[in-house]
TrEMBL record:
It comes from the Bacteria. InterPro entries: AB_hydrolase_1 (IPR000073), AB_hydrolase_fold (IPR029058), AB_hydrolase_sf (IPR050266), Pept_S33_TAP-like_C (IPR013595). Residues 12-120 form the AB hydrolase-1 domain. Gene3D superfamilies: alpha/beta hydrolase (3.40.50.1820). Keywords: Hydrolase. Pfam families: Abhydrolase_1 (PF00561), Abhydrolase_4 (PF08386). Coiled coil: none annotated. One of its GO terms (molecular function) is hydrolase activity. It comes from Kutzneria chonburiensis. The lineage of its organism: Bacteria, Bacillati, Actinomycetota, Actinomycetes, Pseudonocardiales. This is Alpha/beta fold hydrolase.
Length: 249
């Protein structure tokens, strides 16, 4: 059963999809900023937060999970904001249900498959995690990639509580994902692509290829922004998101 939180409101519906190893709580800055304007729904993606995982899966499966959530809530049309992994899922939701997604914001993400060398390094981290546990050194390595120099103490508490057996499954999904670059032209909804210039996971080129290929793409770069952009740089992200969602929600 996919865990979600409907934060209420009578405005246009916006589904918020979190990054790898995070959960819906990472959108606290956005909920505080414009939860009174939109009906925000946070979803814990498969294997994250309070949503279980019972075997291998793909981000297409997670996209189907998201559609099941909005169906359960009786929401026909909705916008999506996805950060990193949430962007992988958001792109796939837009491809599966083009008539339902009114707008798509993709932050710190990619439409390409994972670079093979990076994938191998990530799998090595997963091996360390399952054999040695989430040590401070390991968590600091992951945090440096994801949140830069932001205080990561609260996140570390969450990661230590993550069941060990989930990590290889989650990493397998991440590192073996398929590319959707060849299908970006099918995404007809307005698409905002935001990317930090200091993103340590994906270069700015990954953002540019999305913004330049979707028919209604717009690119916004955040100077010095880290990978988990919506969490680390909300003062730069929130005004652009509010404007985009207000115009297209």
């Amino acid at each position: 059963m996919t865990h979600f939180v409907d934060h209420g409101g009578t405005g246009p519906a916006v589904v918020l999809l979190h990054s790898f190893l995070m959960d819906g709580d990472m959108f606290a800055p956005q909920i505080a900023a414009f939860g009174d304007t939109f009906r925000l729904v946070t979803v814990d993606e498969r294997g994250h937060g309070q949503t279980p995982v019972d075997g291998p899966f793909t981000y297409w499966d997670v996209a189907e999970d998201v559609l099941a959530v909005v169906d359960e809530l009786g929401i026909d049309q909705f916008a999506i904001v996805g950060t990193s992994q949430g962007g992988f899922v958001g792109l796939r939701v837009a491809l599966l249900a083009p008539g339902r997604v009114t707008a798509l914001a993709v932050l710190g993400s990619s439409a390409a498959e994972e670079d093979p060398q990076v994938a191998e390094a990530y799998r090595g981290l997963g091996t360390l995690w399952t054999t040695q546990g989430p040590t401070d050194q390991l968590l600091d390595m992951v945090a440096t990639i994801c949140v830069g120099d932001m205080d990561n103490s609260a996140w570390k508490v969450k990661l230590r509580a993550l069941p060990y057996e989930r990590v290889p499954v989650l990493l397998d999904t991440l590192t073996r994902r398929d590319s959707v670059l060849g299908r970006l032209g099918e995404i007809a909804c307005p698409t905002l692509v935001m990317h930090g210039t200091a993103d340590a996971a994906y270069p700015v080129e990954r953002a540019k290829e999305i913004a330049e290929t979707v028919p209604k793409g717009e690119l916004v770069l955040v100077e010095g922004g880290a990978h988990f952009l919506s969490l680390t740089h909300p003062d730069a992200v929130n005004p652009a998101l509010r404007q985009f969602l207000s115009a297209n929600g």
